[in-house]
Amino acid sequence: MNRENLLQFFKQLKPLQRVVIQAHDFPDHDAISSAYGLSFILQSLGMKTLIVYNGEIDRISLSNMVEWLNIPVVHCSKANLNANDHIITVDGCIGENNVTDLPGDEIAVIDHHTVTAPNSLWFADIRPNYGATATIIFEYYQMLKIDMPMKVATALLVGLNIDTANLTRGFCNADLKAFITFNQIADLDIVNKICRNSLIHYELTNFEDTCKLVKQSEGIATVLLKEPCAKNMLGVLADFLLSVNEFDVVIVAIENKGALQLSLRSECPKVNVGHLLRKTLNDTRMGFGGGHSHMAGGIVLADNTQHFMEHDNAHFAPFVKEIKALRSLEAAF
């Protein structure tokens, strides 16, 4: 991405009555912080913005971030969107199953996932090698020489820290540069408070259930949770299991309206869980999913859960079979 292309896109936005910035459904810290950072840029250039999302903000740390930093984000049902609105999707891509098609014209995508943007968009900036969309937004500030407010840097640093697990997974040199700059501007006490306070009391039962129900085979840990669990909590539990020395691939799932909601993690170099989900679910039309080599999420559609579980017991056979096949290739080389 170069400065001229970015400026040309912002010039196209100038005549609009407002610019809607949409985070992916059930947003995470990176999605909200990136939308917030982009919103400030556009406002500094004289535009009106509105940050929206669908689903729920279901992590206490994200709720705290929004409240403590006064981030102006609203649920799409309360946004009075209409067909004349123009929408920039941040940390997601229109056409993906985790981005609701809202009223209005989707004009741009800014994302760090492996996605394919529609050709009709005015602008697309997709960088799968980046650890967080927050880093892309950071580079916009650098290109345009816009001073970043403390609150924006605080939010973006939280987004970068959580998406990269404090720069321990899936990061690149650009993320390191952003991390250094954010640390010089952000309120580090607030950053640490947001990141530390990541659970509420009743969620401890999810960890208890995970420990009781986890199964393992050749380093692959699998769990089908029985108790209610927030969608974004699955990733927290998957990260928790990946910290166990004997596990290098993790599958955590919960039933949701007959479907299976999934979160996967990998630290095995040959097991790219983003590719694994796309091959096992998208290509077979048994569901949908995607993400990065080290972390991914997806859904097995209700009509196909019998391939992954029997009665109340999950075996995840299609995933396990593919993981073992990938490992055998690793051994062969």
TrEMBL record:
| Organism phylogeny | Bacteria, Pseudomonadati, Pseudomonadota, Gammaproteobacteria, Alteromonadales
Please give the Pfam families that the UniProt record associates with this protein.
DHH, DHHA1
Q: Which organism is it from?
A: Moritella marina ATCC 15381
Q: What is this protein called?
A: DHH family phosphoesterase
Q: Where is the DHHA1 domain?
A: 226-308
Which Gene Ontology molecular function entries are recorded, alphabetically? nucleic acid binding
The organism's superkingdom is given as: Bacteria
List residues of the DDH domain.
Answer: 18-159
- The portions of this protein that span the membrane are none
